Amino acid sequence: MEQLKEQLKQHIIEALSLEDITPADIDNEAPLFGDGLGLDSIDALEIILILEKHYGIHIANAADARPIFKSINTLAEFVSANKK
Amino acid sequence: MAYIGDSCVMTGLGLGTGVNYASMKAYKTGLKVTELPGLSEKPLPVQTIERKPRSRKLSRLEWMMKTCAADVISKSGTEASSERTGIIISTTKGNIGELGTGEPEDGSRVYLWNMAKNVAKALRVNTEPIVVSNACVSGVAALIVAQRLIRAGRYDDIIVIGGDEVTTFTTSGFLAFKSVSEKPCRPYDKERDGLSLGEAVAAVVVSNDKKKSRGTIIEGGGMSNDANHISGPSRTGEPLAEAIKQAMEEAQVGVDDIAFVNAHGTATVYNDEMESKAIALAGLGVKPVNSLKPYYGHTLGASGLLEAMIGVEELKEGKLLGTMGYETPGTPVEVNVSGKHREVSGSRFIKTASGFGGCNAAVVIAKESEAHRSSSIVPVVKPKRIARCRIEGGIVELNGKIEYDGRKDGEEPDFGTFVREIYHSQGDNNLKFFKMNDMCKLGYVAANYMMKGVEHGEYDMAIVMSNRSSSMDADLQHWRIVEKGEPASPAVFVYTLPNIVMGEMAIKHGIKGETIFIVDRKSGEQGREYAKVLLGSGKYGKVMNGWCDVVEGKYRFEAEIWSR
């Protein structure tokens, strides 16, 4: 699980061009959107794309993804339960 | 006075404004469930034109534009080759279907100015085409630009043409944005879950000659920017409401004078939500509203013009077309929408549009018999310059002095390094900067320099930008992904519109006035002339105007802020 979290952070940093941020800077529990990393709706779509590309998980509706994208922890749980 | 003359539209419902309107009255839609191999697993409703181009010289889109415009020119008796006849072309992506994976050669018609030149030539129009590429408000913006140029006496007649095609390029992007519905779109309905895509061409002649009038005029226009987000619409609807209010103010009309509102109504959750708030904020909450997207889908750069021309027919007949598919109210503020056609009475309607880059536009179109006279605009010939910035060759020049020199031992830095250094030197702290594409990064740091110490009211400043290559840099990036058969990246696709750079500037500096992008083959002359007209209109105290272009690391920024 820890490895998966690390991997997700790497994918996010790369896909969202988060300059000057390392995986260590991203708190597993901190909110990804709004105050935490300050991600927005376009970033959410990019994360959906990460899930499709690297884990074979399809999310049709961006609104469904909101609870999943709360933090790295929730995201990692979802991925490990659903990856193909 | 900017009279609306003959119009012609080409869509999946047929050729001719009257033909289209008659089909719509019979509740016919152009949306057809279509297989989109490689793009979507399920077939999706799309509205396409089945005609084949009858030209070897022109592209399909150019031929369609020429066909509609030639009809308008001949019916209205406009002298196409006169130096007093202008041509405005409204499009988001033009001939983007012909884009390859490398930077196109100079003569390529993928460049919007080349496409415009081809259309103008085929129509024997001699004046330099004005290409308005302002995301989904392009069509309404083109009508507003035409009205202002007529009022400023720049032309006697202007042929306004709007057009965009359904292509893999755009469809893949909208799919990545998860904004396309699997069913025909249902604007304002509770069950709405996205837009449908479509293609169309529309043309009209706007003239100062009463004899060319076909009964209506463009009485007022207004544009604004949300200054909130580059793709998501405003959460309050206030900037669109402001654009509507400005259009009504210019038309010298009140709420009681408006018969109906033909809104954008894309049927995405957030767009319709925003519009419902804006319509109420503008005091038009009780007025009948419709969206024509269920008939045509979202026809992008054509939509504003196409829908305005259908709106003219609705106004003349006193019939408001139903928003097909609408059953249950589904917006936070209720909108007076009906799935069925309704009788309406009155002498004016409002057409609105909103798009990526945070832009909004609204026009008031009135029956000529009851229209107020609009004043003429005297362009400000020598506006006062309050800031000037040039970024080129590794050097930033601000107000005539070198502000930042990125050269090391006389060597020019590459663009990525250079723009990042500038950004860090400005002491700005905005994580979003690194997500921007190169064109936006350039405009962003330049605006940071220019806006230092410049005070402006929220709605008192406008931005008019130009370049040669539109969003070519982002277009190539997006196409290189999609062409390989990979899923499109939303963070790349969102930058495939040139006006996004102004959206980024607007967000950073709280600029909520008009933001408009005019693609120009060389000098930005068209944008400059328009900026002078804009200052002369008295709508804005300050206008930023200039050039911002980056293609594959080659860059140039040059702009000024003018004050009245």
Characterise this structure.
- The complex is a heterodimer of chains A (84) and B (564).
- By secondary structure, chain A is mostly helical.
- Chain A has three helices and no strands.
- In chain A, helix 1 packs across helix 3.
- The two termini of chain A are 16 Å apart.
- Chain B is α/β, with parallel strands linked by helices.
- In chain B, strand 22 and strand 23 form a beta hairpin.
- The longest helix of chain B has 17 residues.
- Chains A and B meet through helix 2 of A and loops of B.
Condensed summary:
The complex is a heterodimer of chains A (84) and B (564). Chain A is mainly alpha-helical and 84 residues long.
- Summarize the largest interface: chains and residue counts: A-B, 21 and 19 residues
Backbone structural class of chain A = mainly alpha
Treating each run of at least 4 consecutive H or I residues as one helix, how many helices of chain A? 3
Largest sheet of chain A: none
Helix/sheet category of chain B = alpha/beta
Instruction: Please tell me the overall pLDDT of chain B.
Output: 97
Shape of chain A: globular
Secondary structure topology:
The complex is a heterodimer of chains A (84) and B (564).
Chain A: H1 2-15, H2 41-55, H3 72-82
Helix pairs in contact in A: 1-3
Chain B: E1 3-11, E2 14-15, H1 17-25, E3 31-34, E4 44-47, H2 60-76, E5 85-90, H3 112-122, E6 130-132, H4 138-151, E7 157-164, H5 168-176, E8 197-198, E9 200-207, E10 216-225, H6 238-251, E11 260-262, H7 269-281, E12 289-290, H8 293-296, H9 303-317, E13 319-320, E14 342-343, E15 348-355, E16 359-367, E17 384-392, E18 395-398, E19 401-405, H10 415-425, H11 438-451, E20 461-467, H12 472-483, H13 490-493, H14 500-509, E21 515-519, H15 525-536, E22 542-551, E23 554-563
Parallel strand pairs in B: 4-8, 5-6, 5-7, 11-12, 11-15, 20-21, 20-22
Antiparallel strand pairs in B: 1-2, 1-9, 1-10, 3-4, 6-21, 7-9, 10-16, 13-14, 15-16, 17-18, 17-23, 18-19, 22-23
Helix pairs in contact in B: 1-9, 2-3, 4-9, 6-7, 10-11, 11-14
